[in-house]
Please model this.
Amino acid sequence: MVMAYQVPKHIKVYHIVHMDRLESILKDGCLYSDDIINDRENKGITIGMKKIKHRRLTQNKLNSYPDLFVGQCVPFYFCPRSVMLYLIYKGNHAEIDYQGGQERIIHLEADFYDGVQWAKQNNKRWVFTLSNAASCWFEDRNDLSNLNEVNWPVVSNRYWHAQCESKQAEFLVEHSFAWQLVTRIGVYSSAIQQEVQRVVERYAQKVKVDIKRDWYY
Model:
């Protein structure tokens, strides 16, 4: 039996990416899923676990859409300061090749409901999961009435070690996610903020770039 939780009035979602990916995202005008990125010659710096990315691309299918793999979707967390970012910060996980720390990881923030609406308007399938979609078992939903099944207290909690799977609930959008939906970029420091702003201005984009140290470890 799935417990019911109070759904937040406003729901933001967060995609984390290495700073060196920003320019290609702006050039494309969207974020792409791993299956599309993997077909590119210059993939940029990968911050995730190769083994898990492979599983998301070849094994983990969505219950809502049995022909769609998790890795064919652009992933977002429902919180900054994610479990994945913690592993990058610690820098001691055997399956993570990237050892550059968290400082050059940026958060791309968007509104969840705007993302769902955009997906519907553009005939893209979407789901949210109740836990980590990289695991061998997870549940997904494609109906907003089921949002109360997400463990929102754990998602928003800074101390999550006892329930890290629920902390990693995801919002997934098929194949791509428009850059225009990104409302803010959260960065680690003023140096990264200036670097990000230069890239954004080079593509004549207007988006808030805020130092959000509390989004990091």
Observations:
- The mean pLDDT is 94.
- Residues 12-215 form one domain.
